[in-house]
Amino acid sequence: MILHTDDQTIEDLRIFGKRDSKGIYDLYNHTRTRGGEAILKEMFLKPLSDREQINRRSNIIEHFAKNKVSFPFNASLFDMAEKYLANADAQTRNATRNAVLSEKDVNNGVSSVIELVQQVRAFIDSAAVRSIAAYEEERKEIDALLSDPAFDPVHAEKNKGKLSYAAVTAYDLLFRTRERSRIEKLMQHVYNLDVFISVANVAAENQFVFPEALEEGDMLLLEGVYHPGVKNAVGNSITMNATQHVIFLTGANMAGKSTFLRSLSTAVYLAHMGFPVAAKRMQFRVLDGIYTTINLPDNLGMGASHFYAEVLRVKKIAGELHAGKSLLVIFDELFRGTNVKDAHEATVAVTGAFTERKNSLFVISSHIVEAGEDLKQYPGTGFLYLPTRMNGLTPEYTYTLERGITDDRHGMIIIRNEGILDVLKNGHKRALDQ
What we know:
Elements: H1 7-12, H2 24-28, H3 34-45, H4 51-66, H5 75-86, H6 103-124, H7 127-130, H8 136-146, H9 152-156, H10 165-178, H11 180-206, E1 212-214, E2 220-225, E3 236-240, E4 246-251, H12 257-271, E5 281-285, E6 289-293, H13 306-322, E7 327-332, H14 340-354, E8 361-365, H15 369-375, E9 381-386, E10 388-391, E11 394-397, E12 402-403, H16 411-417, H17 420-426, H18 428-433
Parallel strand pairs: 1-5, 4-8, 4-9, 6-7, 7-8
Antiparallel strand pairs: 2-3, 2-5, 9-12, 10-11
């Protein structure tokens, strides 16, 4: 089962990087093979929505991290094997004379596959790998592939000297024609292994924790969660359950609301992949989907304003909720695209309706603190804020959540501190001289 999400959420969470910045995928991508890199990307595009699958993957990666397992294969070995196997043609009568590969390519390809098969056998027979219960199913599948009698000569091959022409011809026929599907399945297992070890190393290097997917308990428990892409980040803790499944978040500009929302939703997204997260502890109940609205663009193509784009976004999520799905829904500054009066009324109406969906989690940030007062009448609503402390005329931010609602507004102070009004009145040079 796959976790439902969409392009807007993937963009909001910056799952994939752009030319000027790295994404979450880049932080976890230490793979050594092209196949592993492709599988990792697919995992990021399709998080899981099955508790057993999530915990199984998480347990495998956690054990690899604890045992400090290293990827036992040379990347250049895969380059040769992949080039060789990519030119396999079951219909070619003489596989060793495939027009695409030279005789040297065939020799190198055969040697690389022999070495790969032998290294995989040694790896799955090691005590460290045998001790990982969660990996046992996959280990047995690999063992079954390698134990086929067709591979007996491969396991016995010393491969120290140059293979004879007859041996290369026989192995080439075996690898690219007769047992090609087994070799391809074996490669897929190694690619998965590449991903597990890559993510395990990231967890160990950054001291990330492995979330636990629960059947019962709080819907979400996070201690010390922070954004993995932020240096010297401040961790925050949050618990969401049946008695508090809607959070109304307030705070001044620059207080850290958007970063916290990304930290929270990124952790939940990664947890549904079975991946380690930037936190001290995490437990969660598996959801059907995650939808965030943090950087919602205008749809100029259809002539839609920002407000109308927000309305369409809420409508889409309402449809998913009506279908009975259990979701994490994040709205950063809900209805910011309209006037304050309409935004107030709409925020209260929509957030109040969210409180009826007790199997889902909602975090709504807003500058409209008056809406928070109205929302106190709705059971299931909790109130958190990110405070601002004034040091003279300079605002300072703790980035640490506190309970309640804040009416901190420091926009004009920041504008004055930046000298914008002086620039407009006196010109840039005179403003700098003051």
